[in-house]
Amino acid sequence: MICKLSAAAEAASRSRAAGKKVVFTNGCFDIIHSGHVKLLNDAKAFGDILIVGLNESSSVRAIKPGRPVNSFAERAAVLNALKPVDIIFGFKETTPLAAIKKIKPDILVKGGDWKISEIVGAPFVRSRGGKVHTVKLRKNRSTTALIKKIREL
């Protein structure tokens, strides 16, 4: 389901009230590859409902020059088709801290290229008794590497 942050937060609240664990991850997800799929599958395995914060195109441009390759609508549609993803919402900021505070996930997940001490929202999630996890990345799988490979062809 693709929705607004407010609807994602309401769904998270209902899920927690039903005894379910809410997992949150975020990213640009510009050109979906097997590394993204692994991250999403691993994230979903930590709980019952996976909410994905998807950077709006303006925030992608702010953190990744020359990107995104795909529009927000295209990126959201692809994510929405993936089995582990339950809810997707967009955010315009370069970090999802405000969204994390609104959703209040039980579990926060990022790729293994992040140190837990650097993960936005980790102190907030932990202060509420939640957990923060990193998942191992697939070697040599990144959107940047794919773009480089395509340019070399």
Question: How would you describe this protein?
Answer:
This protein is α/β, with parallel strands linked by helices and 153 residues long. It has one domain (2-152): Rossmann fold (3-Layer(aba) Sandwich), CATH 3.40.50. The protein contains 7 helices and 6 strands. It has helices at 5-17, 34-45, 57-63, 72-80, 97-103, 122-127, 143-152; strands at 2-3, 22-27, 49-55, 87-91, 107-111, 131-135. Strands 1-4-3-2-5-6 form a 6-stranded parallel β-sheet, with helices on both faces. Strand 2, helix 2 (34-45) and strand 3 (49-55) form a beta-alpha-beta unit. The longest helix has 13 residues, at 5-17. The protein is globular and about 50 Å long.
**CATH-derived architecture:** 3-Layer(aba) Sandwich
Q: Given this structure, which CATH class is correct? A: Alpha Beta
Report mean pLDDT, rounded to a whole number.
92
Described by the principal axes of the CA atoms, the overall outline is globular
Instruction: Determine Rg (CA atoms, Å).
Output: 15 Å
Number of helices, where a helix is a run of at least 4 consecutive DSSP H or I residues: 7
Features of this protein?
Rossmann fold; globular; six-stranded parallel beta sheet; 153 residues
Ordered list of secondary-structure elements with their pairings:
Layout: E1 2-3, H1 5-17, E2 22-27, H2 34-45, E3 49-55, H3 57-63, H4 72-80, E4 87-91, H5 97-103, E5 107-111, H6 122-127, E6 131-135, H7 143-152
Parallel strand pairs: 1-4, 2-3, 2-5, 3-4, 5-6
